Response regulator
Amino acid sequence: MYNVLIVDDEQEIRTGLRLKMDWASLGFEVAGEANHGQEALDLLETGSFHVLITDIKMPIMGGLELLKRVAAQYPLLKVIVLSGHDDFHYVKAAVQCGAKDYLLKPVVGSELKELIKKLRAELEADSRQQSQHSEAQWKLQQALPVVREQLMLALISDEGEDYLLPLRSDIASLKFTQLAKEGALLRFLCVEMRLPAGRLDDSGKTGLFRLAFQMLCRELIQQDQFEEIVFAFHHPSYIHMMHYFIAADTQEQLERVTGLLIRQVHEQLRIQLRIESVVAVGEPVVGLPHIRRAFLSALLTWSKSQSGAVTQTILADGEGNASEPLQPELEKRLLILLEDADLERFADTLEGAIQTSGGSLQDIHTFMLRVVILLEQAVRKNGITAEQTQDWLFPVTQWQFTTREAAIAYLKGLASFVMDGIRRSRVSGGTAVAEAVRQHIDQYYMNEISLSLLADRFHINTTYLSELFKRQAGVTFSEYLVQVRIRKAAELLADPNLRLADIAELVGIANASYLSSSFKKLYGVSPNEYRIQRLKETNRLY
């Protein structure tokens, strides 16, 4: 039922309008009456009205001033002006102030009825549009955490620093408050759930339990003291873990939030899920360029935890170079040897590198962690099936190796597994690599993506990757990227409040003009024509 407010300084006029027709049969109700403009504004503040019918000439506050106030404060309100034959210039001014239509006094019932029917159609259309907009906004809000997690994974992966410049715009557009803080102190916490032996023997139940663990970890930071400071995410390579990213303004705030979060994690996991937990606290860093080092610090700290279902808090040892990744030259050489499946030279390179890393157990375990992370990244990039890569990092695994020789032998075995996976992928015609590239485009289409960047990421020759992708996808890399972006743009066109320039920016296209021409090539119509067609189809559904 739509509510109507009638404003006129003559009681007879107001009563006559109320009795002119059966308002309820058209879905309306005369919910209020006012003698002048100020009284109408008072009613508008306290009630919910959809239609305003007002005279122009009234004491205290006339209709024109009322219309100006309504246009500013209640832009969605439909306005009808009442007028005599001798004040047409007032009507013209009223229309300029936002009136939808006008009626001449004395009001004819049939004219009023037709006008109200017209306004009902407009109100229903507005309601549908608002519903569509609300749904689009809701979907966006639902998708934001997922997109933010993807952005975080890109930042902490091996290509994160290379991608940092184009990712800065994504940080702003996603309103990623924690990452947007300039000069903030950054720290990661790794949280692992520890189940007593035999607690869950059914693999299906284990999966559900992991989901409950993840959900609880996310819920813990939905509190005022963590708002805009802590971000929770899950890394698919570490299935029994959750990670917290903290961005604090001061050292005091960082330590206070860290301590509070640790206490709540241990306490709530034990109370709600009846499990033990390990929280590893990484070293703090300053600024986004060092975010990967901060994440590696937390992983390294976790790797020093004790085995068994025992609740623990492990702090970083404070050694400045402990969480540094492998040297770029060494990392590149090892990746090339992995791609070439040259196991012996890979092992020889590791032996040379470990000699310079120190001989203590901690030095050996730190070196192992760095190499294992490199191998795990190669697994993901090449689409190799290996669900338990987290076990490669597990503390119990590392504690077995107390000499450099034993560590190299273990790492050589893992490298052999990775090389076999790469070899199988190539024998299958590169399907896994092409699919991994396609998935990367599907996830990060809004970022700056080029064939050369992806070739570097997947450690493949650019020309070979181009031919491989076209053979597997049926279209060139550039064509596929444009198609993904245009299809995403088509989805966003459902929101009538988004300008074409906004959509172009959201999908990673340089400008609205290029979006329009590319869109027409794919869909055969312009974006505006497509949007009109979609709205007509939606209206038919209602």
Notes: The two ends are 17 Å apart (CA to CA). Residues 128 and 539 are 8 Å apart (CA to CA). The chain has 23 helices and eleven strands.
